[in-house]
Write a structure and sequence with these properties.
Length: about 100
C-alpha cells in the first residue's frame, strides 16, 4: 500500500512539473511580434517610357499601378526610335500593397 501511495505522489509530482514547464512556453509565446512585416507578393516588371530630345531621361522611376509599388531603374541605354524620340526601358521588382 505504501508503494502505491509513493508511486501516486511521484506521478502527481511529475505531472505538476510538466504543467509548470508549459506555462514557461506560454509566457515565451506571448512576446509581442516584431514590427517588421514580410511582403508576401512581389513581381519583376519592365516598363518602356518615351521622351523627346531635350527631355531629361531619369535613371530611376517610381512604379505605382493597381496596388503594386516599387522603384524601377534604367535597364539599358535609351534608344532613339525616330528622329527626336527616345525609348527608355526600366525594370525592377515591385511589391503588392494589400492595404491600398
Amino acid at each position: 500500500m505504501k508503494k502505491i501511495v509513493a508511486i501516486s505522489v511521484l506521478s502527481l509530482s511529475l505531472l505538476a512539473v510538466s504543467f509548470s514547464g508549459a506555462s514557461t512556453v506560454l509566457a515565451a509565446s506571448s512576446i509581442p511580434k516584431s514590427p517588421i512585416t514580410t511582403l508576401a507578393k512581389q513581381k519583376f516588371v519592365t516598363v518602356k517610357k518615351y521622351y523627346k530630345t531635350g527631355e531629361s531621361i531619369r535613371t530611376q522611376i517610381t512604379y505605382a499601378e493597381n496596388g503594386w509599388y516599387g522603384k524601377l531603374t534604367l535597364a539599358k541605354p535609351p534608344v532613339e526610335i525616330t528622329k527626336g524620340h527616345w525609348e527608355a526601358t526600366y525594370s525592377g521588382t515591385v511589391y503588392y500593397d494589400h492595404e491600398s
